[in-house]
Design a protein that fits this description.
The chain is of the alpha+beta class. It is 31% helix and 13% strand. The chain has 9 helices and 6 strands. The chain has a 4-stranded antiparallel β-sheet, sandwiched between helices. It has a two-stranded antiparallel ribbon with strand order 4-5. Helix 1 packs across helix 4 and helix 3 crosses helix 4.
């Protein structure tokens, strides 16, 4: 790895890794090369970027302290706010650099995603993006099959949170890092994609490889709750009456009964693992 990239990676990791995040460098050219022009990042190919993902540890090390910090705003998903806060800390830690942050959920006015997060994870070498095209003679006919990233250490028990772009910093000699193909057989790839597309509510696709760590039951309950209802689950707001659409990103749509909200909220607001420093202003 180029010394400049290694130094920047270390500085970003010093800011993010104690809070349950991982960081992977890549070139914009690697991302643009595998996508239609409509999805290209509008920067020179050698521009340096970093993919940021969260591990199971993020829940205790970042989210819980953030909920205690007083930064939480009532109209936005707590996890999105927490991630934005920590990515903002990266910008503050490197004031001499121009850093553009793109969160995984951001879209253009025409609703096109600003970043295809799973593609970015694959080209950065963070997680292998398994798609229908990776299955020879697939069995699905005309069915639509979505792809899914699998991390070599966490399986599906992680989340891609965003990308940091560094306009003006070009690294043409950065060697590409291929993601580890941890689901190499056709049979296992079929099982993974079918589990993700047809049975995502049961979490089993996340165990496509034996993970070093999984989400806790507490964390699973939280992420099973639609984002619009998570503040209510924490005892911080009334539940939304608006219907929410389910997707593989929202693993269940059931809420914990209201009577359990307060006791569970107390648990969520009391981190089991304290980070080296609490979020500041």
């Amino acid at each position: 790895m180029e010394p400049q990239v290694a130094e920047l990676k270390q500085k970003i990791e010093d800011t993010l890794c104690p809070f349950g995040f991982e960081v992977y460098p890549f070139q914009v050219a690697w991302y643009n090369a595998v996508l239609p022009s409509a999805f290209h990042l509008p920067l020179p190919g050698p521009t340096l970027a970093f993919l940021v993902l969260s591990t199971p540890a993020m829940f205790d090390q970042a989210l819980k302290p953030f909920l205690q910090s007083g930064h939480l705003q009532p109209l936005t998903d707590p996890v999105d706010q927490c991630v934005a806060y920590h990515l903002g800390r990266v910008r503050k830690s490197l004031p001499e650099l121009q850093i553009e942050v793109i969160a995984d959920y951001e879209v253009h006015p025409n609703r096109r995603p600003k970043i295809l997060a799973q593609t970015a994870a694959h080209v950065a070498g963070a997680a292998y993006y398994y798609q229908r095209q990776d299955v020879e003679a697939d069995p699905w006919g005309t069915q639509r099959i979505s792809g899914v990233c699998i991390h070599p250490r966490f399986g599906g028990w992680f989340a891609i949170r965003g990308v940091l772009l560094l306009p003006g910093i070009e690294v043409p000699d950065l060697p590409p890092t291929k993601p580890l193909d941890c689901v190499p057989t056709r049979t296992d790839r079929i099982a993974l994609l079918e589990s993700f597309n047809f049975h995502w509510r049961d979490w089993t696709y996340r165990d496509a490889v034996t993970p070093q760590e999984r989400y806790s039951e507490e964390q699973k309950a939280y992420f099973s709750t639609p984002p619009a209802q998570r503040l209510a689950l924490l005892g911080l707001a009334q539940p939304s009456r608006e219907p929410s659409s389910a997707s593989p990103e929202l693993l269940f749509t059931t809420l914990i009964p209201k009577s359990q909200n307060l006791s569970r909220a107390r648990g969520w607001l009391s981190p089991r693992v304290s980070p080296p420093a609490s979020p500041g202003p």
